[in-house]
Amino acid sequence: MAVIETRDLTYTYPGATNPSIKDVSVTINKGDFVILTGPSGCGKTSLCRCFNGLIPHFYNGKLEGEIVVAGLNVVDHKIYQIARHVGLVFQNPENQLFALSVEKDVAFGLENFAMPRNEMRKRVDWALQMAGITELSERPPHELSGGQQQRVAIASVLAMQPDIMILDEPTSFLDPVGAQKIFEVINELNKKLGITIILVEHRLDLAAKYANSVIVMDEGKVILNGTPREIFTSEEARLIGVGIPKATRLYQQLKQHGIQLKNVPVTTEEIANLLREVLKHD
Amino acid sequence: MIEAKDLHFTYPTGLEALRGINLTVDDGEFLAVMGQNGAGKTTLVKHFNGLLKPTKGEVLVNGVNTRDVSVAKLARNVGFVFQNPDHQLFSETVEDEVAFALKNFGFEEVVIEKQVDWALNLLDITQYRKTSPFMLSGGERKRVALASILAWDPQVIILDEPTIGQDYQQKEKLQQFILQLNAQKKTVVIVTHDVEFVAECNPRVILMSQGKILAEGIAEKILTNQKLVAQASIVSPQITQIFLELADLGLPTDVIDVHEATKILLARLRDRR
Predict the structure, then answer these.
(1) Contact call for A172 and B164, based on CB within 8 A
(2) Contact list, B259 vs chain A (CB under 8 Å)
(3) What angle do CA B163, B166, B168 make, to 5 degrees?
(4) What is the pLDDT of residues A93-121, one digit of tens each?
(5) What pTM value is reported for the model?
(6) Considering only Cβ atoms within 10 Å of each terminal Cβ, which end of chain A, N or C, has fewer?
(7) Chosen CATH of B2-230 out of 3.40.50.300, 3.30.559.10, 2.60.120.290, 3.60.20.10
(8) Residues 11 to 70 of A: which have CB under 8 A from any B CB?
């Protein structure tokens, strides 16, 4: 079942001469884990802003084509109506956090939904725990490190248990172990709670193994849309600078030298297993 | 040359961020500072241009104690690009942003123009010269911040998380550019969590943990040392992870580069035939 559907979506920011999104037609199904990638400035963030109604309601500008999210026509519904279904974790956590304590920031969205106090307490604690920041609950967000702020931003969206979660480079300030933990949390939300995930990411090495679909944008257009395996082995993806995971790169290098592995690997485990077979058989 | 001698720093809140750092960064060197969130990486590099002054110990930049000079004076030699470009950008157009420091340093108009053109071109943002930096994407804003520092051609360039928001091609360009700067005897210090970027550049790495230097050495040695990697909350590059899984078949575990990995595997498969 489609939870996001766009047809010929084109958007131009106010005052801009060229559209930032051009003729985008995509379908995202319930329970999908989608990676949205492409060169810096290609329109990824703008497309995410369409998914939760920030475009056109907050940014104004000119929106053409159709977009339906969680059954709601985005143009005809208010941001707060769409927000019940779609949570967006911003690229820069400082643009999202504003309360005097982490706990209050996480509770903010729920307060707006007028959730009963007990339930709110439970939700906030759960979200803090999922994001691994229970011990920071009393701290002011602006005093935290970039990585910690990213976790708070994730928790505050998580608390609302949206049907669709959009995360715009959610681990860019985190150390690799911290990033891995966040990806695992996101994966759990997807696999256990069935939340649809849209992850904007350049570092596909880290995220590829969780996704069932990859959308590649370039200059405002969607140029590739398929499974991670299809995308990572396509020549177009390489040419526009998509960061192909090393496991897939190694597979390609070996292929160039006449060694053909049985499948296209996306993760280190996959290629290690394939290599093990070849090395043993020879 | 930058020297830190028994450098300690405690924030006014009482947080002991640096606890006895001894480090020398030579001219023309490429150094990557890595480690866990909160390890003190950014605090350390903020001492290199005098933004922070040691609580104890000292930092010398080209032999001059950072306590004895103003940040403005140090900045002429040491450029600092912040982690978050929004902490740095403020002008109405990209062009003004990049020209700002050059004007402050009192360069002639012709020189400013030339330098601005050069920096915009280098960072692939010429098409945005009349655009407000705040209209640009996160990755593009990061490049504007970088251009505004490179434009005045400092001797030492400090980049805090330069690869955030950058696609693969931009990262490759950054790598080539850093090597070019090194060839001109300029020093580049980056703070980064991007293990794959470091694996491709193979610079000297210092690994920090809890305000101290845990280890230092060439990336190939540091990033493939499983004990150090775990202690510093980083992970080994993917190529290393693949080879580690195959260690029982006698493959080396200190490989970080995809081309070297290919060579080793090909040799291995040929031997068997």
Answers:
(1) yes
(2) 253
(3) 100
(4) 777 777 889 999 999 888 888 889 999 99
(5) 0.85
(6) N
(7) 3.40.50.300
(8) 13, 16, 37-41, 44-45
